[in-house]
């Protein structure tokens, strides 16, 4: 071996041995990635990958913890909690809905199990076993959306509920972020059943139906409890694409809807919620056609308005629900209204009034109609007519209190007389056969206020006339004096007891109270007449039989009956009102084809015409009113419907007759069973009555019992000696001739409508801007035109159907 040292970096002696690696100038070691060539230079080492994964895990964990801590469960959004109130007929069928959102929340137990299972089969089959969120489904949905396979949410039912109830429908990352964390939190605070219930009540099904109950009504016209499995599967199908899968609105999508329906049922079979044989027996349940959104049109709005007023404070001041609570919605309100009777009322008004209106006739644009019908035995309002259409005329003509009732008030005066055993100024007992002085503009005796001498219709003087005849002909002079004999304050008290609200405008304790200047509503009058029909027992009317929210019943006040007047007082009043229908001003009501009692009424200047009446089973009041559609001011009905004057014996009585006949068509005819006051309709000498002062305009025939009075039965009492009133003060020897005022009559033109005393100091009735109500108005009072007298019958009586003016 050579002893010469080997130099560093010298070539080896052995050529097969490679030279040692050269040192870097700095003498350091080589870096791990150094020396890589090509693409390998860009691949991170395992240490870098591991470090990045750890960092990402830390960030995700920190982000999750931060998100969970920072995102709270918010309050529900206003749209999710908004519900409509649902109004039902007494038989449970839908009458109306109010509110902007068509939703009625129901408890989960009210939804059939198969319907719930159909929803799960369509939307989330693992709902009860999986967690609140499904990350894999979210990733899969995102991938399908990106690759053009359709937009998919990838959300569980819990996430969909959170979106519906707490958030909104916007497609943003922030919303999805919140949805994710709220869903996790919510699953820890609510059970699966609670979440499913919320989901079913907040989901949109199309046809403006939010929630499964509204959907059941919209597509199948029934409540969710009645939905079967096939129908439930279709409702579940709609959740995927509500408008697209509506096969009646979009028949071109029927195949797609059928495919989704089959998918839903197939899922139920797969989950063993449905047997293959049950599935094979099912056919597609076509839904009903979509109905136009009628909302509160027609009579619906009037009914809703009346029911709301009843619930938030009725005539007796009873508050069942305060306004804010009711406005929040969600109530299911069963009314007392009967669909058939509602339809009958509308039909009668259409036939007797609406069809007779002419757009070219100026007076016809002012015509309004209101009506109400009550079952006397229960106080239930079975029908109501508020106007032609709530969306066109917003004021409910059945509940408004601004039109005088006129002579329809007179029966309350007579009932008060009998109830209080009242006597005339001469001391005679007031009965149907009591004779009064029916002279036109006869001064009321016993009144300490300013002089009051009401005018009869068309200025007719009847001479001595019985109470029955005075009621038949609606003689103002007789009833103003009778009110004085009874006592105006006593009459007022009786009227309130029968059902007229104490705060009714112009219900003043003066002799004019008899002629009806007061303005109770049609519904108020129906309640009072129902008291007479039920033999003097008063029941406050009711419009509601049941109210529930979320399946929980709201407590309703009890409506106990009380005896407002004695049976004798009520039944004797019924007797004279039968005579009005048999041969007085209300003969048009005979079209009902049943025993009936009633009274006509006409307001001052013919601004309203009334007919109030009843059978043993039904009390109904109808009013035709005049109102300017532009200004809202009251207008006379002269010339409306092509007749010179509209009075209670015309259109109102005809509506009453047609409605009553239709409403009771399926019931047997029932006679009145009356217990009369002693001495009612006892025989008397024909000479006790004198002829009217105007030949051909009145009857001097003796008073008579109504033609159906024999139905009084064995309880009829009274006999000779129990007495009719002594004669009133003698009449002037020479009655005034036609057109001539009696000696004590006030000068001035004839004023139509209800009577009233003069205004001024000591006057019993304060006049308004139009002079108030008054047949015999104060001097200088503006008068309406006098209508022509009706044709006389052979006995000299005017045709009741042609008689006009205040009755």
From TrEMBL:
The keyword Transcription does not apply. The chain crosses the membrane at residues 46-71. Gene3D superfamilies: Biosynthetic peptidoglycan transglycosylase-like (1.10.3810.10), DD-peptidase/beta-lactamase superfamily (3.40.710.10). Residues 1-36, 583-603, 681-807 are annotated as: Disordered. It comes from the Bacteria. It catalyses: [GlcNAc-(1->4)-Mur2Ac(oyl-L-Ala-gamma-D-Glu-L-Lys-D-Ala-D-Ala)](n)-di-trans,octa-cis-undecaprenyl diphosphate + beta-D-GlcNAc-(1->4)-Mur2Ac(oyl-L-Ala-gamma-D-Glu-L-Lys-D-Ala-D-Ala)-di-trans,octa-cis-undecaprenyl diphosphate = [GlcNAc-(1->4)-Mur2Ac(oyl-L-Ala-gamma-D-Glu-L-Lys-D-Ala-D-Ala)](n+1)-di-trans,octa-cis-undecaprenyl diphosphate + di-trans,octa-cis-undecaprenyl diphosphate + H(+); Preferential cleavage: (Ac)2-L-Lys-D-Ala-|-D-Ala. Also transpeptidation of peptidyl-alanyl moieties that are N-acyl substituents of D-alanine. The keyword tRNA processing does not apply. Residues 374-630 form the Penicillin-binding protein transpeptidase domain. This is Penicillin-binding protein.
